Amino acid sequence: MRSVASICVPDGDRALIDLHAHLLPGLDDGPADDAGSLALAEHVAATGTRTIVATPHLRQDFPDVRVPELPGRVAALQALLRDRGVDLEVLVGGEVDTVWAQHQSDETLRAVSYGGRGTDLLVETPYGELPPVLEELLFRIRTRGFRVLLAHPERNPSFQRDPERLGRIVDGGVLVQVTASSLTAGKRSRSCALAHALIAEGRAHVIAGDLHSVGGRAGLAEALETTDHPRARWMVTDAPAAILAGEPLPPAPSAAAPKRRRWNLKRER
Ligand SMILES: [Fe+2]
């Protein structure tokens, strides 16, 4: 993550929305304390983000993340930001593990959906080789009434080798969130190539920071600097706004044909 002064802060009239952040202090693998959360919040606010969702890990290896506590923790952080004059709205959410979700009640899943609205869930792509049962696990979550936003599939080696598997998941109705730092990683990065390909093919719907600290990953403003594809700005404004509202995604702008051909899923094989 670069300093604020070196980042071209978007000057459009639309504030940016970040749907994936490990922002709550002393909880998962995000900031250790209030000072760290405050610094991260100040950074994202200074680079154009006005709404961010606190999405702590919800999986077995983070037992200290207790769902009933999340609204209070978010409210406490929001109060701190208000006291310090940080113009950033923080909403409740969670990054849900595919297996963890199978053992939770509908009430618990609704509580960790975006804004607690009960419509949209951020679901973490498993790490390492993907099990054949992944599609079934996602299907089970969706049949319980949730729209799934799949977090950073471009970083997974199975999808990098077989992007059409991800394409079939997307074609089946799952939304995709690519991570800002994937877009900035450079064309020699397989994550970067797949992330840009997904945008060009219209198979990615949200760009999010998945930030854990100041000085770590690139944020939304830096990601927007890597592409002139008009879908990219839609992915940090209109699309996340619709997800927060639990509404269908609005039509996305498309690029001219020559630019779409710069990144092609087939090149990733
Ligand atoms: Fe995350």
Structure, described:
- The protein is an alpha/beta fold and 269 residues long.
- It has a single domain, classed as TIM Barrel.
- 37% of the residues lie in helices and 14% in strands.
- It contains 13 helices and 9 strands.
- The protein has a 6-stranded parallel beta sheet, sandwiched between helices.
- The structure holds fe (ii) ion.
- Fe (ii) ion (FE2) binds next to loops.
Compact summary:
The protein is of the alpha/beta class and about 270 residues long. It has helices at about 35-45, 70-85, 100, 105-110, 135-145, 155-160, 165-170, 180-185, 190-200, 220-225, 230-235, 240-245, 255-260; strands at about 15-20, 50-55, 55-60, 90, 95, 120-125, 145-150, 175-180, 205-210. The model is unreliable at about 260-269 (pLDDT under 50).
Derived from helix and strand composition plus strand pairing, the structural class reads alpha/beta
The ligands bound in this entry are: fe (ii) ion
State the CATH architecture. Answer: Alpha-Beta Barrel
SSE string, helix = H, strand = E?
A: EHEEHEEHHEHEHHEHHEHHHH
Spans where pLDDT lies below 50 across 5 or more residues? 258-269
CATH domain class: Alpha Beta
Q: Could you tell me the radius of gyration in angstroms?
A: 17 Å
CATH topology type: TIM Barrel
Report the total helices.
13
| Overall tally of structural domains | 1
What would the average pLDDT be, to the nearest integer? 92
* DSSP strand content: 5-15%
Secondary structure: number of strands: 9
The residue fraction in helices comes out at: 25-40%
For the biggest sheet, the summary is: 6 strands, parallel
Overall morphology: globular
Strand line-up in the sheet with most strands: 3-5-6-7-8-9
State the separation between the terminal residues, measured CA to CA: 30 Å
Protein name: protein-tyrosine-phosphatase
Catalytic activity: O-phospho-L-tyrosyl-[protein] + H2O = L-tyrosyl-[protein] + phosphate
EC number: 3.1.3.48
GO molecular function, one term: protein tyrosine phosphatase activity
